[in-house]
Fold this protein.
Amino acid sequence: MNILKAAVLHHPHDLRIDDRPVPTNPGPRDVVVAIRAVGLCGSEVHYYEEGRIGEHVLNAPMVIGHELGGVIAEVGSEVDPGRVGEVVALEPGIPCGQCLYCKRGDYNFCPDIRFFATPPIDGALQERVIHPDRWTFPAYDLTPAQAALAEPLSVGVYAARTVNIAADDTVLVIGAGAVGLLTALACISRNATVTVAEINESRISAGQKMELNVTTPALVKNDTFSVVMECSGSAEGIQLAHKCVSPHGHIALIGLGSETAMQLDGLRLSQAGITVHGIFRYAHTFPEAIDILRKYRARLKPLLEFTIPMQALPELMQSHEYLAHVKTMVVL
Ligand SMILES: [Zn+2]
Ligand SMILES: [Zn+2]
C-alpha cells in the first residue's frame, strides 16, 4: 500500500503528521491533485483549541485544511488529460446538487454539503487528494500558495456581489485579518473606495504593505460609509459598523463571533434604513477570485510571507506562533 503524509487533528491540542493510504481510483469526473500549499484558517485554530465550532464537533481524528492550492497529477477517464500539470485552487465544499438551495444556485446553504475539514469530513492538508474536476479551478500562472488564497478571498467576492458593490460605493472593512484584507481587494476590484479599520499593529502594517488605506477605529467618522464589511466578529466591530454606516447603507456580517458579540441594534438599523446581509461561505466565486488574485498578485505578499513545512505544523500550533502572522501558509 502506498502511504502519504497528512496533518491529522486527533483531539484538541493534538495535531499529528500521520501516515495515511494514498487515495486511489479517481472516478471518471475526478482529478488527483498534488497539494502544494494550504492556508491555515481561523476555523482550524478553533477546532485545535476547542474541538468544535457550534454544532460541528471533532469526535474522531480529522485531516485539517481547506484553503488549497496544488497541481493536477492525474485525471479520471472523462476529464481532459490536458489538465495534468495545471496549477489549481480547490473549492472545498461539494454540495449535493439536488436540494432546493443547490437548485437555486445557493449551494452554500446545502444541508448535505461535504465541506473539507468540517467534522466528520476530512480536509486536504495531505500530499494528494481526489477531487471532482468541476470543483477544481485552473489558477493559470498563479503559484499554488497564491491559488490557496482563492478560498478566503471567495468570502469577500461573495460579500461584494451580495451587496452589489459599485464604483460609487465608499466601503469600510472592519478587521484586517486575511479575510478582511482580501475582502478589501474584492471591493477594490469593483472600483469602490475602500478604507480598512484595524487596531492590531502587525495587521495594520500588513494592510499597508498591501497598499490599502488602513486607519484605526477611533479615526473613523460616523454616518460615512455606504457599505460596511464587518470581518472582525467582535462586539466593538459590530458597534463600529452601526455607527459609521451612512443612512440607507449596507452592513455585511462576515466575521463570525460569539452570540453576545454579534448583537444588532434594531432601532438604529431601522431609523437609518440600513440593510444587513448575513454572509455564510460563498457560491460561484472561484473563477472571479482567481482573476482578482492574478490582477493584484503584487499586493498579496503579506499573506504569503509566513510559510512553514507541513512537518513543522504541530509545533507551530502548540507555540501559538501563527498568531503573529496574518496568514500561515503550509507548504508541501
Ligand atoms: Zn477558512
Ligand atoms: Zn444541496
User: Anything to note?
Assistant: The pocket of zinc ion (ligand 1) is lined by residues 41, 43, 66-67, 152 (CB under 6 Å). Residues 197 and 215 are 5 Å apart (CA to CA).
